[in-house]
Design a protein that fits this description.
Blueprint lengths: L27 H12 L4 H10 L12 H18 L1
Length: 84
């Protein structure tokens, strides 16, 4: 476990809140609940960075689901291109 994970707001919580249903999708309530937890988390950015680095394809990390992380990756790439 990464050191930052020890400070995560979700530490010890039921992971079902952050994982998709059997159909592979998050419910609106799940997403809202997870995002509310992540919004108050002191290590939200580290969590998101970790999920992107590890290429996590399921679950909510740093307040973003898989599609949100894909958008974040595209935005980061755009920012790098602009700064070059």
């Amino acid at each position: 476990m990464s050191n930052w994970a020890l400070e995560a707001k979700c530490k010890g919580m039921d992971v079902e809140v952050f994982m998709p249903n059997e159909d592979g999708k998050h419910t609106t309530l799940q997403l809202a609940t997870a995002q509310a937890i992540c919004d108050e988390c002191p290590v939200r950015q580290q969590c998101l960075d970790w999920a992107i680095e590890m290429n996590e394809s399921i679950g909510i990390y740093g307040g973003l689901d898989r599609l949100g992380r894909m958008r974040e990756i595209r935005n980061r790439r755009k920012r790098v291109k602009v700064s070059e």
